[in-house]
Amino acid sequence: MTNLVLFGPPGAGKGTQAEFLKEKYKLVHISTGDVFRYNIKNETALGMLAKSYMDKGELVPDQVTIDMLEAEVEKNSTAKGFIFDGFPRTHAQAEALDKLMDSKDSQINAMIALEVDDEILVERLIGRGKTSGRADDADESIIRNRITEYYNKTAILKDYYSAQNKYYGVDGVGTIEAITERLSAVIDKI
């Protein structure tokens, strides 16, 4: 199995690239945001538990998130591998993901981070905000705060995966095709 953690600041192109990579490598793309929305919309037990925390403005506990992801992995038990998008975000979550993969006789092969200059990210997100209707993509100060939050939280994960020789930074600027080629060059070496 090939299991990847795809990372990058807001606007780096993770969603776009995940679509290409899942097709090329026949992997299952697991977006934490999509998993949360699905569980909440379908009122699963885990979705309702997560919603109870979110409704109070609290963070959903790691174990609830891990349980949701485990259910997604189980649903796709014949998969050739997974692309985890938006998870892990903390050291504890990275360890929990390692345990989950270990229980499946597998492992995370690489954390690949799309690296993009902040000013380009701001431009991309403002552009996306004009077409997506997402409020968090319309306000430059919110965008800059989201980018800062990303860097504050992912430095820990960069260290975590670097210590395992599994961290790869990839230039996320250029055409979609060029970025996909750079990502593929890393994946093909794993």
Give structural attributes.
8 helices, globular, Rossmann fold, about 190 residues, five-stranded parallel beta sheet
Q: Could you walk me through the main structural features you see in this protein, from its secondary elements to its overall organization?
A:
With 190 residues, this protein is α/β, with parallel strands linked by helices. The chain has a single domain (2-182), classed as Rossmann fold (3-Layer(aba) Sandwich). Helices cover 59% and strands 14% of the residues. It is built from eight helices and five strands. It has helices spanning 14-25, 32-41, 45-55, 62-75, 91-103, 118-132, 140-162, 176-189; strands spanning 2-7, 28-31, 81-85, 110-115, 167-171. It has a five-stranded parallel beta sheet with strand order 2-3-1-4-5, sandwiched between helices. Helix 6 packs across helix 7. The model has no long low-confidence stretch (mean pLDDT 92). It is an enzyme of class 2 (transferase). This is Adenylate kinase. Belongs to the adenylate kinase family.
Summarize the structure.
Monomer. By secondary structure, the chain is an alpha/beta fold. Helices cover 59% and strands 14% of the residues.
